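debug: dumping io for the single-chain case to check the tokenizer round-trip. Nothing else runs in this session.
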Amino acid sequence: MTTLKGILPVLNQYGVTVKAIAPIQEDVFWVETSRGTFCLKRADKGEHKMLFIYSVLKHLTDHGFHKISAPVAAKDGSPLVMLDGDAYFMTEWVSGVPCDFARNDHLGAAARTLAEFHQYAKGLQVLSGAKARSMYRKWPEVLEKRAADLKDFKNITQQKDQLTDFEKKYLATVDYFIEKGEKALETLKSSDYRQIAKDAEGQKTFTHRDVAARNFIIGEDREAYLIDFDYCRYDLRVTDVVRMVERTLRSFKWNVDKANLILDEYNKVYPLEKPQYRIMLAFFQFPQKFWRISHRYFNRKQKWQEEGYLKKLASATRKLELQEKFLLQFEQKYGN
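debug: decoded output
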């Protein structure tokens, strides 16, 4: 953990006079200086990924998109400051109030900002040493592997002599989710995915990947500002739209009106093309949340107690009828 005293040598390399410092979360600091207010973060993603994030933010600001936390170079022009083997990264502080997706005005502003971001999120030229994962053509392979995982996890469970409470509940629902995974693969294979992925790769599009309400700030101008690019990578823009819709609807009983609001506001700025909706449908159909808890349980990726896994499983299997209703309405309106 970085201490307040420990970051002073880092801030000296930005050539600022520090007036006040406050921790926001572990290894993230609010810093008031002679040059304004900033956010300083100790990088935990590796130097290559942090250089990619800096490249993304610089690309966006250089091309005129300013609804983000702009990157700040050190006084010698370096994108990162290195100290004792750790990389530090500074951005401008974005003032405003937390975005609340329960408020339609906030949600609409966030959807418009996401679309505007996607207009600029292409043609990226990265700094030397910057690296990030590229997902353009990989999604069919990824979903196919995850669908196969569910069958493997089912077989593993069936071969056990004694089952835990989690495993009993798992077997009661896994066939439903295996079917959903196979249906999602069929939808993706029947779409124009390959051509859309090829076009995205040619344009070098990139995504934010974590478009939750916590990563939008509503400014005094009532516009939404997008922050925290820790998970950005090369990908199709529809993956961001899918994540925004899913994360919103899980909190609002899969209300299709919320989905329509997001898509309507997004399309005012950067309209989605009809073939892209078919790809979105495949992502909506795939049981990602159920696969994630399965993966964590059977591969012991998360050291939760039995109660923790049961709680996550219940969350993944909750409101299935409402999800099915949403999928049907989405397919009828957008996916055919």
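debug: round-trip ok. The CA atoms of residues 56 and 124 lie 7 Å apart.
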